Amino acid sequence: MKKISFKLGLLFFVFVLGIETILFASLYVTLVNLRIHEEFQQLLARGNNHRDVLEKSFDPATLEHVATMESEAETDVVITDDTGKILCYSDHILPIAERIIENTNKNIPHRGMIAQKNWQKESHISTVSPIRIGGEIKGYVYMFQNTESIQNMIDKLKHHFMAVGFLSVLLTIITIALLSRIITIPLIRMKQATEKLSKGDFSVRLQVKGEDELAELGKAIQTLAGDLEYLKKERNEFLASISHELRTPLTFVKGYADIARRPNLAEEERNRYLSIIYEEAEQMQKLVKDLFELAKLDQHSFQIHKEPTNLCSFLKKLHDKMHPAFEAKKMSFAYHCEKNITVHIDQKRFEQVMMNLLDNAIKFSGEGSAVSIEARREKHGIVLIVSDEGRGIPEMDLPHIFERFYRVDKSRSRTNGGTGLGLSIVKEIVEAHGGSVRAASEYGKGTKIIITLPEG
Ligand SMILES: Nc1ncnc2c1ncn2[C@@H]1O[C@H](COP(=O)(O)OP(=O)(O)O)[C@@H](O)[C@H]1O
Ligand SMILES: [Mg+2]
After folding, report:
1. Nearest CA to ligand 1 atom 12
2. Percent above pLDDT 90 for the chain
3. Residue-level pLDDT at 1
4. Tell me, what CATH number does 328's domain have?
5. 286 and 307: one domain?
6. Tell me, what is one Gene Ontology molecular-function annotation carried by this entry (predicted)?
């Protein structure tokens, strides 16, 4: 069986059973020893009693009296003189009694001693107490007890122990079976959930209770499922957008190519169609370039190589490079920058960011308007603001412009060659620098793109 609940349960069971066995065994041994000890003590005390009586009056009448008393009891007595000769006895002389009397060494303390202790093998146990009168040993009182009663008692004890042991093993099995099931149920659920996940079914719902490690694992799986579901949805949407973006220019290319290849077309007209095809191809090239850029940014391998950069000289270089583009549209372009601001940026990537923003500023502003970049140090970091006086962004579009393929004016953006990917590339790069970007705009008046970078 491969089931984890079974393995866990078996492991627990082996350990608990081991512990139980040790405990039961030691309890049993202790109890048995205690009981046997008591039996010996009682027998010895009884012998000592007789001995005390006999020490007071050591005569045949008393001997007879003691023997009679014992003949009524379960125990037996044998009284000998100091040489071991039997003076009197209750009931009868047991064969074992003679052997014991013969073998007992005669140096016996006055409090008596055990003469035969092997209760397991012999028919009787025995004690002996010396009778001492005036410092002289007069004889010995031997007490005998049948071991059958002891054996019976031990057997009963054994039965009790077996019953209790059996019951506790049963209870242990039940408890462990229940517990291991309770512990493993969430694990099994999680296993099923991850199996579903690996098959691409992200609709897993785990009921997570509590705060322990298992609950945390459950929550992690749940989050993972959510993330995967989101990614899948996003990927599908992304693919749909890409195919949509490509379909329009391809339709144009195909349509115009079809017209352009007609034989009886004027040269001038053919050239017009060919240049439309060229423009569309350029647009697609741009789209593919941007997509490639995004794909690179998306990869985990994407790394930025930050280096300490003086922001002002960085902006100056940018200004020199971009100036002609502004002049071509009769726009002004200025930058203001607090001195000695050093930022840690990947210069190539950050140039990409600024170019995208300036490209937008040029694209979405009228002739003769002004664009400026401002860089300053603020409490929470370095702030870079690109402002223009262009058409601005409607309030309802403002939260979406950093999304992929989002354009405020879908139809017109075709004519100015936008792919809708510029700002999402900007966002990825800025965030990879540990910064953030947002837009503020007043429709019809102008737009500000605000980048915040961590200082140093
Ligand atoms: N400076 C700006 N002024 C007005 N609208 C802007 C500006 N920058 C961005 N936008 C709007 O945000 C959209 C997304 O910008 P972007 O991601 O750069 O895509 P693209 O430039 O390819 O259209 C643009 O289509 C435009 O509608
Ligand atoms: Mg753009």
Report:
1. 401
2. 56
3. 45
4. 3.30.565.10
5. no
6. ATP binding
Counting Cβ atoms within 10 Å, is residue 82 exposed (0-12), middle (13-18) or buried (19+)? middle
- Beta-bridged to residue 132, according to DSSP, are 137
What span, in angstroms and rounded, lies between the C-alpha atoms of 400 and 408?
9
Of 297, 326, 347, which closes a domain?
Answer: 297
Encoded tokens for 228: 């995967």
| Same domain flag for 225 and 307 | no
C-beta pairs of 252-255 under 8 Å, 24+ apart in sequence: 252/276, 252/277, 252/280, 253/277, 253/280, 253/281
- Ligand 1 contact via 446 beta carbon (within 6 Å): no
* Whole-number Å distance between alpha carbons of 79 and 419: 123
The number of the ligand 1 atom at minimal distance from the alpha carbon of 290 is 22
Q: Any idea which ligand is nearest the CA of 421?
A: 1
Same structural domain for residues 308 and 250?
A: no
Q: Which of 359, 386, 402, 423 to mutate to test the pocket of ligand 1 (most atoms within 8 A of CB)?
A: 423
Beta carbon of 287 within 6 Å of any ligand 1 atom: no
Length of the chain counted residue by residue: 456
d(CA 417, ligand 2 centre) in Å: 9
Q: Does one domain contain both 309 and 448?
A: yes
Q: What is the CB neighbour count within 10 angstroms for residue 322?
A: 21
- What was the pLDDT predicted at 437? 96
| 309 and 449 assigned to the same domain | yes
Alpha carbons 367 and 199: distance in angstroms, whole number: 56
* Residues spanned by the domain of 407: 303-453
**Predicted confidence (pLDDT) at residue 16 exceeds the cutoff of 80:** yes
* Pair (435, 389) in one structural domain: yes
Q: Which of 242, 275, 297 is the last residue of a domain?
A: 297
Q: Is the CB of 401 under 6 A from ligand 1?
A: yes
Residues 103, 223: one domain?
A: no
pLDDT in tens, 252-285: 899 999 999 999 889 999 999 999 999 889 989 9
**Which ligand 1 atom is nearest residue 425's CA?**
17
Could you tell me which residues are beta bridge partners of residue 164?
none
Yes or no: say if 182 and 175 are a contact pair by the CB < 8 Å rule.
no
**pLDDT tens by residue, 216-231:** 998 999 999 999 998 8
203 located within any domain: no
Work out the pLDDT band at 45, boundaries 50, 70, 90. very high
- Ligand 2 center to residue 126 CA distance, Å? 112
**What is the Cα–Cα distance from 296 to 303, expressed in whole angstroms?**
10
Ligand 1 in reach of 364 Cβ (< 6 A):
yes
- Clarify whether residues 218 and 265 are in a common domain: yes
Instruction: Give the total number of structural domains in the chain.
Output: 3
How crowded is residue 105: how many other Cβ atoms within 10 Å of its Cβ? Answer: 8
